[in-house]
Specification:
Chain lengths: ~525, ~120
């Protein structure tokens, strides 16, 4: 229905990310029979964890096979057509739910490059206090800030975190910084993995300008150039074992509308699960691994949003995605940022139906949605549903509900300081306030999670690293306890939430772990094949 | 709009794919049970229909709320990406895409000649 924008070919030709070569890719949707695949290492998933693991292993000389449930959608196929992009790039078109009080909408990628293709590209190192806690409380080795410094530096060389160019900022970027400064806060320029972003703000639907340095344009093509293979549209059901050792996976290729078609099995002495904090424990559970910590310790960085409505025209569609964040409340568990979704998505989060909804959405160009990310202390679980699909169960504690209320109150302070006339709130029982004097009503709200509208794009911790098998699903370097040959390489590994956007933490942990695997477990495979 | 919704339905989570057709039937015939009116949703006048749907949105039963919120979200997604609607709202994301790709190409060219930004 949407008419795709016409990019002049001579302009498109000057964008290197629009002409990346992806060798060794086999689309599973083209399969016409069952298949058996063989490699030195299998990597399930191609997001921030899987692409990094595959790249490092392939560059070390291993024959790596990546298995990705979604399709390969290249930069030149991305557009501003929201539904089309959601069908191509999102799991469940973004309609996944975390069940509990309250229900939380969860969005993740399902495509080559994983959620890095649809995230805002925030590229923050793990806060030092978190790394120190993991070292001190969890007794994890080689994870303190000094040990991790060269690992972060290595990741950043590829990802190129940089701040936004001033000529690409819109009114909303300016309002955010001005509102914060008026309150005496210190907005931090956001570090995002990008090369000269032009401020299109289409990050959540694939970056058509190629500026965002997602896995799709960095580690993934690097892995393929190093000889790794990628099978897309292939969903892994379970891990295969031989005498207690992981030896492969089996699953189904996916055809039209992501419906299962033919079966495949893939065999390798090393199996790495990087399917995200929902599906990695799901695969482990479907493989009849029964260790108690698998699926537990799920944390979700709940996000609550407030929509400020201004008299002035904000034109939220013009200007960079989240050029600034507020970090000064990180120690209280609150990060404040913003993301401007297209009208079709924002309308679903605004009140009313019929004319009331239309009236409020007519103000879209005067709206500015700001959100808070909560470093949660609540934990949930990943369990298998009756259809053997992993479901997430999670309820917000009173403490985290109170932190969310405080985050919402602070956002309202910022928006009113920036000149907002009204703030639309994420509470069923308190829909809107029209003056800073009303902010006290938010702080006075009973810390009851019911009636609170939350969403998240970060889930973590459901197969966490630990030194004790009673406490974690994997050891201190991501190897699943008691199952030789089986490793985890995604946000499931986190012992606790990180309180900031987790992409760089995932990439750094996986880099750290893969280096260790190459020095220990995988050394033998490399030397026996003459590649070490 | 209906074509877009139709294309999208197969991508919903499995339980929603099964539950949606059933839920829509309950919604259609629900006025008998939930609003005490001997009619169907599609035959109600606009004010009654709006009040009836608002009742579902405010329901204490999560599944009733979820159905109408989900349906509403799907419809909004399809409606608000129609070029005519976006034009009427003054939202020109598509035009901005062409500009932004050009801007980035120029910036990359400048960078190649030593401009660090």
């Amino acid at each position: 229905m949407a008419i795709p924008a016409e990019i002049p070919p001579e302009v498109a030709a000057r964008i290197p990310e629009r002409s990346i070569d992806y060798p060794n890719v086999e689309p599973g949707r083209d399969a016409r029979r069952d298949a058996t695949l063989v490699a030195d290492a299998l990597v399930v998933g191609s997001g921030a964890g899987g692409a990094v693991a595959a790249c490092l292993l392939a560059e070390a000389g291993l024959d790596v096979l990546m298995i990705e449930e979604g399709g390969l959608h290249k930069t030149e196929s991305f557009s501003t057509s929201v539904l089309e992009m959601m069908r191509a790039l999102y799991r469940d078109i973004g309609a996944s739910m975390i069940l509990g009080k309250p229900g939380i909408v969860f969005v993740e990628g399902r495509c080559a490059g994983g959620s890095t293709v649809i995230n805002g590209g925030m590229c923050w190192r793990t806060p030092e206090r978190i790394l120190e806690r993991w070292q001190r409380d969890e007794r994890l080795p080689d994870i303190d800030p000094r040990a991790m410094e060269p690992v972060f530096a290595e990741v950043e060389r590829e990802m190129n975190p940089e701040t936004q160019r001033p000529d690409t900022l819109g009114v909303h970027n300016r309002l955010f910084a001005e509102g914060a400064r008026a309150l005496g806060w210190h907005p931090r320029e956001n570090l995002r993995n990008m090369r000269r972003c032009a401020g299109l703000n289409n990050c959540a639907f694939g970056c058509p300008t190629g500026a965002k340095q997602s896995m799709l344009v960095t580690y993934l093509p690097r892995a393929l150039r190093a000889g790794a293979r990628l099978v897309t549209d292939a969903r892994v059901d379970r891990v295969l074992f031989d005498r207690g050792r992981a030896t492969g996976v089996r699953g189904r290729f996916l055809g039209t509308n992501a419906r299962p078609t033919y079966r495949f099995s893939a065999h390798a002495p090393t199996v790495i699960l990087a399917a995200g904090a929902r599906h990695t424990p799901g695969i482990l559970k479907r493989s009849w691994l029964r260790a108690r910590p698998i699926g537990r310790n799920l944390t979700v960085h709940p996000n609550a949003k407030v929509v400020g409505i201004f008299d002035e025209v904000v034109n939220p569609w013009w200007g960079a995605h989240q050029s600034h964040q507020i970090h000064e409340f990180l120690d209280d568990g609150i990060l404040i940022g913003y993301a401007v979704p297209p009208p079709g998505i924002l309308a679903g989060a605004m009140p009313g139906i019929g004319e009331r909804s239309a009236e409020i959405m007519a103000l879209y160009n005067h709206m500015f949605p700001v959100g808070c990310l909560i470093e949660d202390t609540s934990t949930g679980r990943v369990v298998l549903g009756p259809d053997r699909e992993p479901q997430m169960l999670y309820s917000l504690s009173r403490r985290d509900t109170a932190t969310t209320h405080e985050g919402v109150a602070k956002i309202c302070e910022l928006l009113f300081a920036a000149g907002a006339k009204r703030c639309v709130l994420p509470f069923a029982d308190l829909g809107e306030i029209r003056s800073p004097d009303d902010i006290s009503r938010i702080r006075a709200r009973r810390p009851d999670p019911r009636g609170l509208e939350l969403m998240t794009v970060h889930i973590m911790g459901s197969a966490r690293m630990a030194v004790d098998p009673q406490r974690g699903a994997t050891d201190a370097f991501g190897r699943v306890f008691d199952v030789p040959g089986l490793c985890v390489a995604d946000a499931s590994l986190f012992p606790s939430p990180v309180g900031v956007n987790p992409q760089e933490t995932i990439m750094a942990l996986v880099t750290r772990n893969v280096r260790r695997w190459l020095e220990t477990d995988l050394r033998r495979s490399l030397s026996s094949s003459g590649r070490g | 709009m209906l074509v877009e919704i139709d294309r999208t339905l197969p991508y919903l989570p499995r339980l929603s794919r099964i539950g949606l057709p059933l839920g829509l039937r309950v919604l259609e015939w629900g006025p008998l049970v939930f609003a005490g009116q001997p009619t169907r949703l599609s035959r109600m006048n606009r004010d009654d229909a709006r009040a009836y749907l608002q009742g579902w949105l405010d329901s204490r039963l999560g599944s009733r709320r979820l159905l109408v919120y989900g349906l509403r979200a799907l419809i909004f997604l399809a409606f608000y990406q129609h070029p005519t609607v976006l034009e009427a709202m003054g939202v020109h994301w598509d035009r901005r895409l062409v500009e932004a790709v050009g801007l980035r190409a120029d910036t990359l060219d400048r960078a190649a000649y030593g401009d660090p930004r």
